[in-house]
Design a protein that fits this description.
Largest sheet of chain A: none
Number of domains of chain A: 1
Oligomer: heterodimer
Shape of chain B: globular
Structural class of chain B: alpha/beta
Structural class of chain A: mainly alpha
Largest sheet of chain B: 6 strands, mixed
Order of helices and strands of chain A: HHHHHHHHHHH
Distance between the termini of chain B: 49 Å
Strand order of the largest sheet of chain B: 6-7-8-3-9-10
Radius of gyration of chain A: 19 Å
Number of strands of chain B: 14
Number of helices of chain B: 10
Shape of chain A: globular
Distance between the termini of chain A: 20 Å
Helix content of chain B: 25-40%
Chain lengths: 254, 311
């Protein structure tokens, strides 16, 4: 599995798409911060106005970036295509699986690679927010410690929850053998949850609204103490999708 | 490379595979021994690829038993690490160069020998193309890259599914040489399928013939040649004396056909040397003719008999 992760890292370093993803992440971050813009799925107009109307500090930039993190998901989907999608579309998984790696090792290796990539990109996303804010001459808006804590918390939270959506993409990819179906599924997930939440009173939907957790923390509607059910559900989904994908791939005609 | 001392590299026992109503494989049993180049013959849809996919775990085995390098299918620990394969088409990451694809494969296998990549590139004749993206390679070059990827970990066992498909005549000759080299120099046991029977005949020493999912015959090259009466046919004045000379000189397997004809099936000696030995032994040689056995004829008649049997 570790060899697989190393091989995937090597491949990404030699793939132009990886650098485009990095550039887009930086660009998104710069645009949000420089133009004091906020936007994302399930973010209402009042919230956006509140942010846009206030005096921006480094902290406002971090919060605003969190509210716009659904955009980060859409950029990260390209990462999914590079790391695992291409294995299926080009059928290179045959080489990988014949190399002797177990099915669970293959799926877990891909997941860990994507998780590390997402965490790295999210860190870059927030890092550029801080850098742009400082270049624009804005004040911190909070103590340095508080800024660092927010940066760490948001990176881990957003990275983790995006990876849960990716794990759903993995099982769809393995089931449907279609990169297009998997990417559409991942792209539509936050939108569908948002629509269903608006039209139904299903409170349990909030636990699978993976992109909304970090936003709720930012808006103060979800306290850190109340985070555990969300984390529990997400871990459950992760285990189900990873083990499920490994079992499916074992019995599938590849 | 681990040298395989046990006789059987691959044992397939009563393997069947069904896709819906289509019986792709029906109770197939075969054995590939260490050092073999085992040629798997059969028409399109006979089950060659399905069998190879089952061996490598790309298809799920429900019925029968496969033992690869001493390990049972579904419980492979090291067997696949010691196996290289090209199943259906060779695959590589198109945006990576030849060298990068090989480097990736080396990382996957945990190989860090510094000269191995250069050696493999040289072996398959792709040194000049090492900086070319895989997507820019010709079909023949892609096949070579596939072979390079499959042989990079120095496997004990190599599975090649229709490796000469789409190659031009030069490419076929080169590929044949590579396969022979792998078997003779690196002692790699090879399972190879093809529908180009003449090519399979030239490289393989054992054959398995699949027809409509059933293995209808396993035959060695000697048995095939014997059935086809192929070899060096010599016309002499005294066949008994000629037999004694050949026996004494260990000229190879031979068979006396009648009082003036004998046939040498396998010999390490050239026709000229055999002629010289016979003349020196007092035998008058009237004619030496190389009679070629045709795998195609053998295959066609076997399949026809099988079909007739089922009618």
């Amino acid at each position: 599995m570790f060899n697989q992760i190393k091989a995937d890292s090597y491949r990404q370093l030699h793939t132009r798409g990886s650098y485009i993803i990095l550039a887009l992440t930086v660009l998104l971050s710069v645009l949000i911060t420089a133009f004091e813009s906020t936007g994302g799925i399930m973010i209402n107009a009042d919230t956006m106005q509140e942010f846009e109307g206030s005096r921006w500090s480094v902290m406002t930039g971090l919060k605003s970036a969190t509210l716009s993190s659904t955009m980060l998901l859409y950029i990260d989907i390209a990462l999914f295509v590079i790391v695992i999608g291409q294995e299926f579309s080009k059928k290179t998984y045959k080489n990988t699986l014949i190399s002797g790696i177990s099915r669970i090792g293959f799926i877990l290796g891909k997941f860990v690679t994507m998780l590390l990539d997402i965490l790295f990109l999210t860190l870059i996303f927030y890092g550029v927010v801080i850098l742009t804010s400082l270049l624009a001459g804005r004040d911190g808006g909070a103590s340095l410690m508080s800024l660092v804590r927010t940066l760490g918390l948001m990176t881990v939270t957003i990275g983790f929850f995006i990876s849960v959506i990716f794990s759903i993409g993995v099982i769809v990819l393995v089931l449907a053998n279609s990169v297009v179906t998997a990417t559409i599924c991942m792209a539509l997930w936050p939108i569908l949850i948002a629509i269903l939440s608006n039209f139904t009173s299903w409170r349990w939907l909030r636990y699978i609204n993976f992109t909304g957790v970090a936003q709720q923390i930012t808006l103060g509607t979800l306290k850190i103490d109340a985070l555990w059910p969300y984390i529990g559900v997400s871990f459950g989904v992760l285990i189900l999708t990873i083990v499920g994908s490994a079992l499916i791939i074992q019995r599938k005609e590849l | 490379m681990t040298t395989i001392m046990s006789e059987d590299v691959l044992t397939i026992t009563n393997v069947s595979k069904r896709f819906g109503n289509f019986q792709a494989l029906d109770d197939v049993s075969l054995t590939v021994k260490s050092g073999d180049i085992y040629g798997l013959l059969g028409e399109n849809g006979a089950g060659k690829t399905t069998l190879m996919r089952l061996i490598t775990g790309l298809s799920f085995l429900k019925q029968g038993k496969i033992v690869l390098l001493g390990e049972q299918s579904g419980h492979y620990q090291q067997a696949l690490r010691r196996t290289g394969a090209i199943i259906e088409n060779p695959t590589a990451f198109p945006e990576l160069t030849v060298n990068q694809n090989l480097k990736l494969c080396a990382i996957q296998h945990g190989i860090s020998e510094p000269n191995l990549l250069a050696d493999v590139l040289d072996f398959v004749g792709l040194t000049a193309k090492q900086s070319t993206k895989a997507s820019h390679l010709s079909l023949g070059q892609r096949q070579r890259l596939g072979l390079a990827l499959a042989t990079l970990p120095r496997p004990d066992f190599l599975i090649l599914d229709e490796p000469i498909n789409g190659l031009d005549p030069n490419g076929i000759i080169e590929f044949r040489k590579l396969i022979k080299q792998l078997n003779e120099e690196r002692h790699t046991t090879i399972l190879i399928s093809s529908h180009i029977l003449s090519e399979l005949y030239q490289v393989s020493n054992r054959f398995g013939i699949l027809h409509r999912g059933r293995l209808i015959k396993q035959v060695t090259k000697s048995e095939l040649d014997a059935a086809n009466q192929s070899g060096l046919e010599i016309t002499v004045d005294q066949v008994a004396v000629a037999g004694q000379v050949l026996d004494h000189e260990v000229a190879g397997d031979f068979e006396i056909l009648d009082e003036h004809h004998l046939i040498i099936r396998h010999s390490s000696l050239s026709a000229a040397k055999i002629n010289q030995l016979l003349v020196q032994g007092g035998v008058s040689v009237n004619q030496i003719v190389q009679r070629e056995g045709s795998l195609e004829e053998y295959y066609t008649s076997l399949v026809a008999r099988e079909d007739q049997h089922h009618v």
